[in-house]
Amino acid sequence: MSDVAPLSDAGSVEIRRSARRRRTVSAYRDGDRIVVLVPARLSKAEERRLVTEMVERVTSREAVLARRGPRASDGALAERSERLSREHLGSLAQPTSVRWVANMEHRWGSCTPADGTIRLSHRLQSMPAWVIDYVLVHELSHLLEPGHGPEFWDLVARYPRTERARGFLEGVAVAAQLPGLSDCVPSPAESSPGSSSPEGPSPDGDSPGGLLF
Ligand SMILES: [Zn+2]
């Protein structure tokens, strides 16, 4: 059984009731409507309350993403890193995933060469595109050279604005008085066990293999 009701500014809402569904409620955007899945056995009042809540959840999530702009999506980041790998690293750096994370306290970016994952601090989102590109090239280069030796910096230097971007990031760190951001760090050899699990409690941020500048 399903109802479609108009929704003032976000299209319409379709309520799908399922007898099999017992407690869980979920909602998602489908074109110009929001579909809310609810258990069939709810009272009218309870259903109305849950539907309102779920619609608000979907629309506020959309508002946050819209404010951040298209550049803030993981998809856009992956495309960008593919382009940078092609232009500067002969497409040799092929990450398995590239995504934004909000829990990175001491790095601008991090890379786990063992599983090919790259993470960027969401704090970079407000910085110029060429700075984000530098951090991406830096992390991509770690897929080819895990440490910070001369071979590594030769790769990074293929990105023409490397020095300028490093200076920019140093300036940001100084201005923000973020001492942890003032140096480039650990090699993957110093990894602690479990540091590569991207969904773990905190590893994203301070997982080794990460770097900056
Ligand atoms: Zn590094």
Describe the structure.
The strands form two sheets. Strands 1-2-4-3 form a four-stranded mixed sheet, covered by helices on one side. Strands 5-7-6-8 form a four-stranded mixed sheet. Helix content is 38%, strand content 19%. It has helices at 44-68, 74-89, 129-142, 150-156, 162-175, 203-206, and strands at 2-6, 12-18, 26-30, 33-39, 97-101, 109-112, 117-121, 210-211. The radius of gyration is 22 Å and the shape is elongated. It is of the alpha/beta class and 213 residues long. α2 (74-89) crosses α3 (129-142). 28% of the residues are buried. The longest helix is centred in the N-terminal third of the chain and has 25 residues, at 44-68. The chain starts with a strand and ends with a strand. It has six helices and eight strands; from the N terminus they run ββββααβββααααβ. It has two domains: 2-68, no CATH class; 71-211, Metalloproteases ("zincins"), catalytic domain (Zincin-like). Zinc ion (ZN) is lined by residues 138, 142, 148, 184, 211.
Annotation keywords:
four-stranded mixed β-sheet, 6 helices, alpha/beta, 19% strand, 213 residues, Zincin-like, 8 strands, binds zinc ion
Query: Which secondary-structure class do the elements indicate?
Result: alpha/beta
List the secondary-structure elements in sequence, H or E: EEEEHHEEEHHHHE
Order of strands in the sheet with the most strands? 1-2-4-3
In CATH terms, what is the fold-level topology of the largest domain? Zincin-like
Strand content: 15-25%
